[in-house]
C-alpha cells in the first residue's frame, strides 16, 4: 500500500512538471514576446529584434537585419502599457519608450504566424 501511495505522488509530481508548459497561456506568451522585444530594443540586440518582429518595410529578414544595424536612436525606459486580445490570432500592444530622451507611446499589432507570434512593425512608415 505504501509503495502505491509513493508511486501515486511521484506520478503527480511528474505530471505537474510536464504540464507546466501547457499551463502557459497565450496571454503569457504574448506578454513574454513583448518583454523580450523591448529588452532587445534597449540592448540593441538586432538578431532578437528581427526574430520577434515582422517588419512590413523590408521584403525579407536579411534586409531587415541590415537596416536594423543602422539604428542610431538610444531606446530606454521601455514598458508595456496595455495588451488587448483582438481575436484568437491577434493582439494589440501599447508600449511606452524613450527615444533619444523623448517619451513616446506606440501601438503594435501582434499576430500569430504559423506556430509563433510576431510583433508587426513598420505599418506607420
From TrEMBL:
Residues 1-22 form the signal peptide. Keywords: Signal. The keyword Signal applies. The keyword Signal applies. It comes from the Bacteria. This is DUF4878 domain-containing protein. It comes from Cytobacillus mangrovibacter. The lineage of its organism: Bacteria, Bacillati, Bacillota, Bacilli, Bacillales.
Amino acid at each position: 500500500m505504501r509503495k502505491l501511495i509513493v508511486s501515486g505522488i511521484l506520478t503527480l509530481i511528474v505530471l505537474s512538471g510536464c504540464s507546466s508548459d501547457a499551463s502557459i497561456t497565450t496571454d503569457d506568451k504574448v506578454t513574454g514576446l513583448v518583454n523580450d522585444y523591448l529588452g532587445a530594443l534597449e540592448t540593441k540586440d538586432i538578431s532578437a529584434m528581427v526574430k520577434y518582429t515582422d517588419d512590413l518595410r523590408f521584403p525579407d529578414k536579411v534586409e531587415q537585419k541590415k537596416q536594423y544595424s543602422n539604428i542610431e536612436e538610444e531606446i530606454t525606459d521601455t514598458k508595456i502599457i496595455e495588451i488587448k486580445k483582438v481575436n484568437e490570432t491577434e493582439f494589440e500592444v501599447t508600449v511606452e519608450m524613450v527615444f533619444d530622451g523623448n517619451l513616446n507611446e506606440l501601438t503594435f499589432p501582434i499576430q500569430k504566424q504559423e506556430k509563433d507570434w510576431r510583433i508587426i512593425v513598420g505599418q506607420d512608415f
